[in-house]
Design a protein that fits this description.
Layout (H helix, E strand, L loop, with lengths): L11 H7 L5 H11 L1 H18 L1 H4 L6 E4 L2 E3 L24 H6 L6 E3 L37 H37 L1 H15 L3 H11 L4 H9 L4 H14 L3 H8 L4 H9 L5 H24 L10 H10 L4 H28 L2 H4 L2
Antiparallel strand pairs: 1-2, 1-3
Helix pairs in contact: 2-15, 3-6, 3-15, 6-7, 6-9, 6-10, 6-13, 11-12, 13-14, 13-15, 14-15
Length: 360
C-alpha cells in the first residue's frame, strides 16, 4: 500500500480541489485567520470588551462578598447602611473608610474586594496626596483632577466607548443598507431622488446641530446616538447602492424576475447576500470613527452627561493638567490601542473578502 508523503507541497490544482464544497464564508474566514495580525487583534478586542462587561468585578469600591458577625452580605448588589457594620450613621457604607475596614478585619470577619478597589465615580476622601495624584500602590495609574481612580475611569470609559460604537455602527448599517438597497435596486427616478436628498442632508452642519441640541436638551448618550445616527449611514449607503446597481444586472436576478419572485425576496434573499462585502469590511472602520467622534465630543464638552466615565473628558483633563502626565499617557494609550486593533481587523477583513486575492 502506498503512503503519501505528508510533507509534500500541494500543487495549486490540488489546493483548489480541497476548496471544493467549502462555503464562501468559510473560505473568507480561513483567509482572515491566516492574517495573524488581524486574528490576534480580533481576539484581543473581544477580550477587552468582555473584560469591560465585567468591570464591576474588576474595579469596584464595594466588596463582592462580606462576612460580618456570622452573616454573609453582598454589597455589590445591595446597599447597606453603615450601622450594619458597626458604624454610627444610616447612610450607605463607605468601604474605603478606615473604621469600616477595621471592622471587616476583626473577630473572624472578612471581605472579598475586586482587584482594584475603586469604582467609576469613587472618590477616596481618605487619600494622603492631593489630586491629581501620581501612580501609587493604592491607585495603580494615579488619579484624575477629581480624585477618581484612573484605572477605573479607563475601564469604564472604554466600556462606554465600545458599546456606543457598536450601537452607532448597528444603526448606521441598518439605515445605510436599507437606503442603498432601495437606490440600487430600483434605480431611475428613485435613485435620483435619494441622491439629491442625501446631498442636501449631507450638507447640514452636524457639529452645529450637536451644539444646538446640547444647549436645548440635557446631554445623554441616547441623544448622541440619535444625532450621530442621522448622519452616519450615508457613507455605507453609497457602497451598498453601487453593489446593487452592479448585481441587479446579473443573470441570476433576471432569472428570479422571470420566475415571478417578488422584489422584496430578490433584494433580501438574492442580491443582499452577494452585496455584503463592503458592509462587513466597513464595520471596524465605522466603529473607529464612532469612538473618535464620541471622544472628540466629550473633549469639547458636548458628549456624555457629567459624571459618566469618558476617554474624551480624561484627555481634556490631561490638557488642563500638563504636569499630571499619567492622565494623558494612559488615556492616549487606551485610545491608540483600541483604534489600532480595529484598523488591523478592518485590513484583515478587506483582504479576506477581496475576490482578487481569493483567486490568487
Amino acid at each position: 500500500m502506498l503512503v503519501s508523503n505528508s510533507t509534500e507541497t500541494l500543487t495549486p490544482q490540488a489546493l483548489a480541489a480541497t476548496e471544493i464544497g467549502v462555503s464562501p464564508a468559510r473560505r473568507a474566514w480561513r483567509r482572515f485567520a491566516d492574517n495573524r495580525l488581524g486574528r490576534w487583534s480580533l481576539w484581543l478586542f473581544l477580550a477587552l470588551v468582555l473584560l469591560s462587561l465585567g468591570a464591576e468585578l474588576i474595579s469596584n469600591d464595594r466588596p463582592l462578598l462580606v462576612r460580618y458577625q456570622g452573616q454573609l452580605y453582598t454589597p455589590l448588589w445591595q446597599d447597606y447602611p453603615e450601622t450594619t457594620f458597626g458604624g454610627d450613621f444610616e447612610t450607605p457604607t463607605d468601604y474605603l473608610d478606615p473604621f469600616i475596614q477595621q471592622q471587616l478585619q476583626q473577630n473572624g470577619n472578612w471581605a472579598l474586594f475586586a482587584p482594584n478597589r475603586y469604582g467609576a465615580d469613587t472618590i477616596n476622601y481618605f487619600a494622603t496626596q492631593p489630586n491629581p495624584a501620581p501612580p501609587s500602590r493604592a491607585n495603580w495609574l494615579g488619579t484624575d483632577e477629581r480624585g477618581r481612580d484612573m484605572l477605573a475611569q479607563l475601564l469604564y470609559g472604554f466600556r462606554v466607548s465600545a458599546w456606543f460604537a457598536l450601537a452607532l455602527t448597528a444603526v448606521g448599517v441598518v439605515l445605510g443598507v436599507l437606503a442603498g438597497a432601495v437606490q440600487g435596486f430600483f434605480g431611475g427616478k428613485t435613485d435620483l431622488a435619494f441622491q439629491r436628498l442625501i446631498e442636501i442632508w449631507g450638507s447640514m452642519p452636524e457639529l452645529y446641530l450637536l451644539i444646538i441640541f446640547s444647549a436645548v436638551l440635557a446631554p445623554s448618550i441616547g441623544l448622541l446616538l440619535v444625532l450621530l445616527s442621522l448622519f452616519g449611514w450615508m457613507g455605507l449607503s453609497d457602497y451598498v447602492r453601487a453593489e446593487f446597481l452592479r448585481n441587479r444586472q446579473l443573470d441570476y436576478v433576471k432569472a428570479a424576475r422571470a420566475l415571478g419572485v417578488s422584489n422584496g425576496a430578490i433584494i433580501w434573499r438574492h442580491i443582499l447576500p452577494n452585496s455584503l462585502t463592503p458592509v462587513v469590511t466597513f464595520l471596524p472602520f465605522r466603529m473607529s470613527a464612532a469612538i473618535l467622534a464620541l471622544t472628540s465630543l466629550d473633549f469639547l464638552g458636548l458628549g456624555v452627561p457629567p459624571g459618566t466615565p469618558s476617554l474624551g473628558e480624561l484627555l481634556a483633563q490631561g490638557k488642563n493638567n500638563v504636569d499630571a502626565w499619567w492622565i494623558s499617557l494612559s488615556t492616549f494609550g487606551v485610545l491608540v490601542l483600541t483604534l489600532l486593533l480595529l484598523t488591523f481587523m478592518g485590513d484583515a477583513l478587506r483582504d479576506a473578502l477581496d475576490p482578487r486575492k481569493a483567486q490568487a
